TrEMBL record:
Secretion signal, residue range per the UniProt entry: 1-18
Alphabetical UniProt keywords: Signal
Keyword Signal: yes
Highest rank taxon of the organism: Bacteria
Listed SUPFAM superfamilies: Periplasmic binding protein-like II (SSF53850)
Family under the similarity heading: Belongs to the bacterial solute-binding protein 3 family.
Transmembrane segments: none
Solute-binding protein family 3/N-terminal domain residues: 33-257
Protein name from the UniProt record: Transporter substrate-binding domain-containing protein
């Protein structure tokens, strides 16, 4: 009885209850497209081919997510340096392409549940693997590092390897060539990328990919405070892994050549 009286007082006074905030979950379906930011330069997760078509693990996953919503993907090109500004400016609904979860990014955005576990390792000429095993060996003035600007690789180097020489190289698709040609000694990158790229550069080796220098996880970048959209993406990802769809997509890129 007291509840009914209180409710009547609120209605009589003109008070109203706030409606649930709009979610991208609804907006995307109404629009008919899912806007996705991606760099297109990070195999095996995202790569822009010469024919202007994207491919990679996260590309296929984003297309699967869009299909589950009954919409198409609208790709939004970005770079590692401009990923967060583009995302926060609302140029896209989500970001994909081997994006590492970090606390700095978490301050400004949500992440999906982790897609995969990864970690930073040295990628070096195979003859030099013994020279670059530890942080102490890497953090020397004589060591020439090369990294793409704006991502977690550069952040790791600034934080952990401040004594080493650092060159920022803007083309992440051919950055490995600099190490192979002895123009740089080490690229710090994720184990998954190094394991994939050593297929293309037989003189380069991933150093201790099972024991990374830093633990990390990869996920989709999502808008902060949109719980409904995040819940849908997480549930879709859970089902994708449970049904084997995720593993089939990943194996297309990560299975060993002789498998």
């Amino acid at each position: 009885m007291r509840f009914l009286i209180a409710a009547g007082v609120l209605l009589a006074s003109g008070a109203s209850f706030a409606a649930p905030a709009d979610s991208l979950l609804d907006a995307v379906q109404q629009r008919g497209s899912l806007k996705v930011c991606t760099t297109g330069d990070y195999k095996p997760y995202t790569f822009l081919r010469e024919d202007k078509q994207y491919e990679g693990i996260d590309i296929a996953l984003a297309e699967s997510l869009a299909k589950s919503l009954g919409v198409t993907v609208e790709w939004v090109p970005t770079t590692w340096k401009t990923l967060m500004p583009d995302f926060l400016a609302g140029h896209c609904d989500m970001g994909v392409g081997g994006i590492s979860i970090s606390l700095e990014r978490q301050k400004k955005a949500f992440f999906s549940d982790p897609i995969t576990v990864d970690g930073k390792i040295p990628f070096v000429r195979c003859d030099d693997t013994d020279k670059y095993q530890t942080i102490e060996q890497l953090n020397q003035p004589s060591v020439r590092l090369i990294e793409p600007p704006g991502g977690t690789n550069e952040a790791f180097v600034h934080r952990e390897l401040p004594k080493a020489q650092l060159e920022l190289f803007h083309d992440n698709t051919v950055i490995f060539k600099s190490v192979a040609e002895n123009k740089a000694d080490v690229m710090i990158t994720d184990a998954s990328e190094a394991l994939y790229q050593q297929r293309n550069y037989p003189t380069l080796c991933a150093v201790n990919p099972d024991k990374p220098l830093q633990y990390s996880e990869k996920a989709f970048l999502l808008p902060r405070d949109d719980s409904a959209f995040k819940a849908y993406v997480d549930q879709w990802l859970h089902l994708s892994k449970a049904t084997g769809e995720y593993q089939r997509i990943a194996d297309t890129w990560l299975a060993k050549p002789d498998e």
